[in-house]
Write a structure and sequence with these properties.
single chain; Rossmann fold; 8-stranded mixed beta sheet; 8 strands; globular; binds adenosine-5'-triphosphate; binds magnesium ion
Length: 256
Amino acid sequence: MARTIVVVSGKGGVGKTTVTANLGRALAARGRRVTLVDADIGLNNLDVALDLEDRVVYDILDVADGRIEPAEALVSDKDYPDLKLLPSVKCGVSDKIKAARFAAIASVLNMTSDYLIIDAPAGVENGFHRAVCAAKEALVITTPHLSAVKDADRTARLLYTYDVKSVGLVVNRVRYDLTDRGEAVAPEKIAELMRLKLVGALPESDVIGINAVCGEKGESAKAYACLADFIEGKSDKIYSPDTGRGLFSLFKRRWQ
Ligand SMILES: Nc1ncnc2c1ncn2[C@@H]1O[C@H](COP(=O)(O)OP(=O)(O)OP(=O)(O)O)[C@@H](O)[C@H]1O
Ligand SMILES: [Mg+2]
């Protein structure tokens, strides 16, 4: 049985799809069987983020309508065969897939995965309800911006009305140069304000800005490795670009 984790935010565009794709890859790199479910029905782009768009043949609507089995719709990642994607649909058919049907599909995929990660749409409407109903754990994604934090906070409160047993916070697009100067709120402080457990912090990245997946080297890759270790219960370390907070590392960071 898989751990079923839904990735939610509140405000759109804060990095749910990016986190789903890169966390999935980091877990797959550790040998886990990972199934990613694109629950952003109508505005999906997890296939694009993973560069799998050209491999998609069937989608979640084919499965929901009973034309094919869930496993037949899965697309394997190019680098990690045990990383699979259940693609979503582009056209406006969101209301055709009911929450119970979606959860039933998830529970079938659950049986052949170690992790089932569901990329939810922005907001707290029907699509959110459908994605959250299928999960037992949630990752709330926010950026350090006040508007994103406020919306994430509302979303997190809503999660407790579902059967979600554990809620963790991931702060994305952290500018450590700004947090060091006290010009942006640090991830730990955001978690404290939201009264959520911080499970990951991810740096602002030029690589991700261009490619969606961060590859295996560089600061984002380190941050995702940290997040994967945290989720696996192998470490309680939250990524930070330094090994120390000394003057040398501060100096180095300002000039890199
Ligand atoms: N750490 C990062 N550094 C730089 N750019 C990032 C980072 N994380 C995400 N992005 C960029 O932010 C944009 C939005 O990311 P993404 O699509 O993952 O957000 P989302 O929450 O899934 O959006 P939506 O709510 O529309 O589904 C993308 O262009 C992505 O490349
Ligand atoms: Mg998205």
